[in-house]
Amino acid sequence: MAAGTAGARRATGRALVGWFALPATAVLLVFFCYPLITIVWRSFSDPTLGFGNYLSLLHDGTSVRVLWRTLYTAMLVAVCTLVIAYPYAYAMTRMGPRGRGIMTLLVLLPFWTSLMARNFAWYLLEQRGGVVEKLLAAIGINGVELLGSVAGVAVAMVQVMLPYMVLPLYSSMNSIDRRLLDAATSLGAPWPRAFRKVYLPLSLPGVLSGFSLVFIMSLGFYITPSLLGSPQQALVSQVIGIRVNNLLDFGGAGALGAVLLVVTLLVLALVNRLARPAAALSQAVDRA
Amino acid sequence: MPKATGAGENGLGWGLRAWVAVVVLLLLAPTLVVIPMSFSASATFAFPPRNWSLRWYEQFFTSDAWMSSLVTSLEVGLLVAALATVLGVAAAFALDRGRFVGRGAIRTLAMAPMIMPGIVVAVAIYAVFLRWHLTGTVTGFVLAHTTLAIPFVITSVTTSLAGYDRTVETAAASLGANPATTFRRITLPLVLPGVASGFAFAFVTSLDEVVIALFLQTPNVRTLPVQMYDSITLQIDPTIAAASSLMVVATTLVLLIPQLLRRRRSTS
């Protein structure tokens, strides 16, 4: 067989194999993209065409406050998970293969453990007269009510989100050449300074991936706020849920949802050059 | 951030060690409270329990509501895993080997369900499925969960495709194997671990999904996480503790099995 025909066959093969993406693409377009487009469209058209739903968000007195509270909570959760996860991910890179394997598994176990089970556990811990209250009382802090407060929601969300921070962080830190750090210290930089000037900037892509991932996921998190929060201190996801479940107000819910989508896309656009959160996460999960 | 303590050439400083220990505790300990809770004798969520019993396990396995939600979850989960695996494996091959217009866009689309705000996706799917009469049907659950599971299958298969040497296929072809034989005898066995973990990821993704399920549920068709959710919000039903404990054990096993298989494969 001539080499030319083999090459031509490979080229046609490459064109043909592309069609294998069609079924998955079709399913995602019909059952994922189309619904999202529809809900955004309904925010402009349900019940009447125009910006009515958005104007009422601005003027109903609560929605704007709820939106700010949600952004603030998501930011707080992302900062806390970052602070907690960074040293852990760093420690992972300092372990041997066995230690890394174990530390990865310890992160993946909660990652794949039933979300309802974990939220129920936090419900038990935070309930009135629960373990957290007793622990706080033991160190002299009384009268803290976590259940029904944004603080209670945030604490549980930080724990639930930790794996989403550790995995992209580790993924990125793992590719840093540690000899750069050794070089800096051997040239006389004290450890903290070498860390700040050399390691921290190099780990920035991982920080951005993890941070944006946790921030975005926290924005749209429904289960933890609706189980551990309260209507008085509602987050956007609860309000969307209530509007749809109790009022079948898809237009209003769609407007709030569209705001979340816009924030999500903005964050993704901002970090896209440096980090691709979803890809970072999925690779990290898979490599483990 | 206590990081300066890691200055030693080898091993970790004590500060970093302590930090790691605290993080591990934070990752694992809170969830474990569901296990003692599940052996409580009382019909409240009082924790820690004063008296012990197996009544909530008995309740879980004998109650119609709990058993039918479990069966629905398993049914949906297996169908999702099968469907997402077929779609995801095909897409992963196309994305890895195909050269076509829109490849980047499809790659982005395939990852999008992982990152879009959960509540927005759930409400969007609910609105459309109401019109299509797919709420409260197994088909509806399967289709919705499949969109969430596809990214996991694609990544998992892509990783195993990227990790192997294409020349073995060329070698098989040059030795006279036709493309079908090459695929069956060479390609398939090499990507099989990736496919298997993709299947497992897809299954767990569906089994664990609550938000979409909460909207699509009807009293007749509901999944286990929905039943669990209602047992906290609508009634105080400690059967959820037994269900949670079983889920914790089950997901841990589902996670560990492919890990062990892959590890054995890589060492052999």
Give a written overview of the molecule.
The complex is a heterodimer of chains A (288) and B (268). Chain A has 15 helices and no strands. Chain A is an all-alpha fold and 288 residues long. Chain A folds into 2 domains: 1-45; 57-287, Orthogonal Bundle (MetI-like fold), CATH 1.10.3720. Chain A is globular and about 65 Å long. Chain B is globular. By secondary structure, chain B is mainly α. Chain B has a single domain, classed as MetI-like (MetI-like fold, Orthogonal Bundle), CATH 1.10.3720. Chain B has 12 helices and no strands. Chains A and B meet through helix 1, helix 2, helix 4, helix 5 and helix 6 of A and helix 1, helix 4, helix 5, helix 6 and helix 7 of B.
Which tags fit this structure?
heterodimer, A: 288 residues, mainly alpha, MetI-like fold, 2 domains, 15 helices, 78% helix, B: 268 residues, 12 helices, globular
